[in-house]
Design brief:
2 copies of one chain form a homodimer. By secondary structure, chain A is of the alpha/beta class. Chain A folds into 2 domains: 66 residues, Arc Repressor Mutant, subunit A (Orthogonal Bundle); 111 residues, Rossmann fold (3-Layer(aba) Sandwich), CATH 3.40.50.720. Helix content of chain A is 43%, strand content 20%. In chain A, the strands form 2 sheets. Chain A has a 7-stranded mixed sheet. In chain A, helix 1 packs antiparallel against helix 4. Chain A starts with 5 loop residues before the first helix and ends with a helix. At the A-B interface, helix 1, helix 5, helix 6, strand 9 and helix 9 of A face helix 1, helix 5, helix 6, strand 9 and helix 9 of B. Chain A binds a DNA duplex (22 and 22 nucleotides) through helix 1, helix 3 and strand 2.
Chain lengths: 203, 203
DNA sequence: CTCTGTGAAACACTTCACAGCG
DNA sequence: CGCTGTGAAGTGTTTCACAGAG
């Protein structure tokens, strides 16, 4: 029963946030379900992958559940995040406070523009992309926020210096080697998907 | 055979971009597949939802296929997009050139900060959130880039003035009424998912 | 008596493999 | 002969429904 379904992993992160917000001493699957917008059966099934965490007739003890979720998601220690690309999007991400609150630290921003290197953006140092290998111990996850043309090359470099988890915002579909998990978040693609549903959700 | 699976819709948008980039006169399912990183059988199955578009023994006639994809995705006309929230992220989105290229136009940015209203960001006017209903004819899709606290309220307003498609970047899981399609893109959630896989992808 | 945990059924999506068109 | 389009099989995910713990 090990091997958690991918679909479940994506929801565990939501549950973590949902349960944190509920801020009760115990929570039931139904409460979590309505907080994150899925079915109660789904919540129970998902949480069952973490082993027996609940108390029958009562629900889940909040602190215990949060610990289990954080452990499963690898969030026990603070996680370092590198941002590659100091353009508009990279800067916005660097200034986004939400990361720190959730246990992630932006360790540095990488670019190739000599004018930017050595400066600091929202308190984070800007370094040359060439120093990624030297810095690679500092972070576990990288965010690609470069133009599409550069994205493939950046992924290659990241993968070469041992990064296993990449979040790609460049408008290109990246696919790393099998041991590298890449999540592509393309804004245009998202809008196109929405556009599809707009036409059918009857006016 | 109508009713295209959600998973397929998400890929159609990728195919559109992949085929555009290939820029050939005809493309085979195998070519599309390798451009976007899925299996050839998957591409053929997905495209078959659009009806018979290919030519056996040859592949798909590029122009014809692009037209069919754009029609299916509701991208025949230019699509208006409103951005709500003129903070860091909202500004970055406003400056992101990729939208215009793909048939989307940012019509305006909405905020409640009096100091920002009336100014313009990357050429897009900043208006008060209260003017959303009056402007609602201008856009079909809205992007929420506000703090988490405001997001629910904003969704409510958008839905009240007839918006059916919403892309939410605020760190909150929004769920609109059934006739409103909401896509939640939460950066922290994405990082948490990556964090999960980091621990398992054998070092 | 409530709410979890889970077999079993249902459903959704993907892959296989090949008939048959051009 | 190459490549599409698709039944059929396979796999993954969700829902149902209920036994049983607290």
């Amino acid at each position: 029963m090990r091997q958690i379904p991918r679909a479940t992993v994506a929801r565990l992160a939501r549950y973590l946030q949902g349960v944190e917000e509920l801020a009760k001493r115990t929570v039931s699957s139904a409460e979590i379900a309505s907080a994150v917008g899925v079915s109660a059966a789904q919540v129970r099934r998902d949480l069952s992958y973490l082993g027996h965490q609940g108390i029958r007739g009562v629900g889940y003890e909040t602190e215990h559940l949060l610990t289990a979720l954080r452990r499963e998601l690898g969030l026990v220690e603070n996680v370092g995040v590198a941002i590659v690309g100091a353009g508009n999007l990279g800067q916005a991400l660097a200034g986004y406070g939400g990361f720190e609150e959730r246990g992630f630290s932006v360790t540095a921003i990488y670019d190739i523009d000599a004018a930017k290197i050595g400066t600091s953006i929202h308190g984070h140092p800007v370094r040359h992309v060439d120093s990624l290998p030297a810095d690679s111990e500092a972070f576990a996850i990288a965010i690609i926020a470069t133009p599409a043309e550069a994205a493939g090359e950046v992924l290659h470099r990241l993968s070469a210096c041992g990064v296993r988890s990449v979040l790609n915002f460049a408008p290109a579909v990246l696919k790393g080697p099998p041991n590298v998990e890449v999540r592509n978040v393309d804004l245009s693609t998202e809008l196109q998907i929405l556009s599809f549903y707009r036409s059918r959700n009857g006016s």
